[in-house]
Amino acid sequence: MHKRPATRRRRPSARRVKCHRSYTIDEAARVTEFCKATVRRWIKSGLPTVQTIRPYLILGDSLIEFMRKNRPHQKCQPAECFCFKCRVPRKPALGMADYIAITGIGGNLRAICEVCGTLMHKRITLAVLGQIRGELDVTVVDRNSHLEEGP
User: Fold this and answer.
1) Is residue 119 part of a domain?
2) How far, CA to CA in Å, does 5 sit from each of 2, 11, 32?
3) What CA–CA distance (Å, rounded) separates 135 from 112?
4) Backbone dihedral region of 87: left (phi > 0), alpha (psi from -120 to 50 degrees) or beta?
5) Which of 30, 58, 71, 148 has the fewest Cβ atoms within 10 angstroms?
6) What pLDDT, in 10s, does the model give residues 104-140?
7) pLDDT of the residue at 9
8) Is the pLDDT of residue 3 over 60?
9) Statement: residue 150 has pLDDT above 80
10) CATH of residue 33
11) Which of 141, 147, 90, 140 is closest to 119 using CA atoms?
12) Is 42 helix (H, G, I), strand (E, B) or coil?
């Protein structure tokens, strides 16, 4: 039987870590899908361990808290959307975006990434829409405009 190669996550996911369990470095690496060297670097940078001698034991609660605290947050400016392909906030290409109303107070901003051309989405309110209209050329699109009646 062939083993499927482990895929690496770009960001650590704390969802697979059990809070009432203790992990060795090897087990913590397997459950977070990172290599053992990364877990060792986390310990050097402040991940608390139960013992100061080897084998290090890491409490699940401590691992979850450390991963959530050290998760990189990238805030988008009002006129930016997060591009999942580039993995950074980007401005829309040509300064153009579409607004699709979902409720009476908000909707989705849809734009194309200026770097990679990927479609980006961002949930915004009408108040924010008023702010970004000076920076972006926003077209209000009917929510059901993509549906047409056939012959």
Assistant:
1) yes
2) 9, 18, 15
3) 15
4) left
5) 148
6) 888 888 999 999 988 998 888 888 888 888 888 888 8
7) 46
8) no
9) no
10) 1.10.10.10
11) 90
12) helix
